[in-house]
């Protein structure tokens, strides 16, 4: 496997279609509240959108889709809502994995899954194993994920495997840390989308978003359709990605 290029070490090869789209699926609760529905109804509707956006990414030949499903800070929510989100995740894994497999989708879950109950952990393991060889789309679900957790966890794992690095601090560089980060092997996101109107990263892929193009939309996640995805891609296609260079260099790289 060719290692994806780090955007801070080299300028990646770019195409019209983003190789990797990462989405913060936000606004489920407000969508429901606006309709005088319980927040749960917003989360349920959000699941339908996951299906639609996965299918849209396959059609558009976007190779990697990463979805933020539950952050390391979402445990702060009322217990009822946390339980509901876990149940939704479990039923999605139970019902949809076969469909993902049939569509050549590889499912990965990133985040600290040790805090999940054993049944959920088993469903995750089975889904990952069952779809391991699939290559059409890699769907990464970030669950109990936090960008700071990812970096700290990577640092700990690296030093556990290679304790000699602590004696030679100069040798700790990006390439040393990279294999231990949750998104190792996957190109950095080209396009980040956050639905729901907030303009923040909320501890999502802090390391990997270094040079990602950011797109914020007021549309709530339960209303984020394939047509909305196309608007985000269109906006992405109008950006000039300079990676530190001047505009003149980008236009005439020789
Ligand atoms: C996103 O929608 C879903 C999760 C965080 C799991 P929210 O539940 O955050 O919806 P709002 O932001 O309250 O509207
Ligand atoms: C971010 O949304 C996390 C997910 C979508 C899973 P939040 O709704 O939790 O983010 P904040 O709290 O508004 O920053
Ligand atoms: Mg929110």
Describe the structure.
There is one protein chain. The protein has 254 residues and is an alpha/beta fold. A 6-stranded parallel β-sheet has the order 3-4-2-1-5-6, sandwiched between helices. Helix 1 crosses helix 2 and helix 2 runs parallel beside helix 3. It has a single domain, classed as Decaprenyl diphosphate synthase-like (Undecaprenyl pyrophosphate synthetase, 3-Layer(aba) Sandwich). It contains 8 helices and 6 strands. It is globular, with a radius of gyration of 19 Å. The structure holds 3-methylbut-3-enyl trihydrogen diphosphate (2 copies) and magnesium ion (MG).
CATH architecture: 3-Layer(aba) Sandwich
Return the CATH class.
Alpha Beta
Please report the number of helical segments: 8
| E-strand count | 6
The proportion of strand residues reads 5-15%
CATH topology name, in short, is: Undecaprenyl pyrophosphate synthetase
Which structural class is indicated by helix and strand composition?
A: alpha/beta
CATH 4th-level superfamily: Decaprenyl diphosphate synthase-like
Mean pLDDT: 97
- Give the ordered list of helices and strands: EHHEHEHEHHEEHH
Main beta sheet strand tally, sense and closure: 6 strands, parallel
Biggest sheet: strand arrangement: 3-4-2-1-5-6
Shape: globular
- Rg: 19 Å
Through-space gap between termini = 28 Å
What binds here, in terms of ligands, is: 3-methylbut-3-enyl trihydrogen diphosphate, magnesium ion
Low-confidence stretches: none
């Amino acid at each position: 496997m060719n290692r994806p290029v780090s955007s801070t070490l080299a300028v990646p090869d770019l195409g019209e279609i983003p190789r990797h789209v990462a989405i913060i699926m936000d606004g489920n609760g407000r969508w429901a509240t606006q309709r005088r529905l319980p927040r749960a109804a917003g989360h349920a509707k959000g699941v339908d959108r996951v299906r639609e956006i996965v299918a849209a990414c396959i059609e558009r030949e976007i190779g990697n889709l990463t979805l933020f499903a539950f952050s390391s800070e979402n445990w702060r929510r009322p217990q009822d809502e946390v339980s509901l989100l876990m149940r939704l995740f479990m039923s999605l894994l139970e019902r949809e994995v076969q469909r993902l497999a049939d569509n050549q989708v590889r499912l990965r879950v990133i985040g600290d899954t040790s805090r999940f109950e054993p049944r959920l952990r088993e469903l995750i393991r089975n889904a990952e194993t069952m779809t391991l060889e699939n290559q059409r789309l890699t769907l990464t679900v970030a669950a109990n994920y936090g960008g700071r957790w990812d970096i700290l966890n990577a640092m700990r794992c690296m030093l556990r495997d290679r304790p000699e690095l602590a004696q030679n601090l100069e040798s700790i560089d990006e390439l040393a840390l990279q294999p231990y980060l949750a998104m190792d092997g996957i190109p950095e996101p080209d396009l980040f989308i956050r639905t729901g109107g907030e303009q923040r990263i909320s501890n999502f892929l802090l390391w990997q978003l270094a040079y990602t193009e950011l797109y914020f939309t007021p549309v709530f996640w339960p209303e984020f359709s394939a047509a909305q995805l196309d608007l985000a891609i269109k906006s992405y296609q109008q950006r000039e990605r300079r990676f530190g260079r001047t505009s003149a260099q980008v236009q005439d790289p020789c």
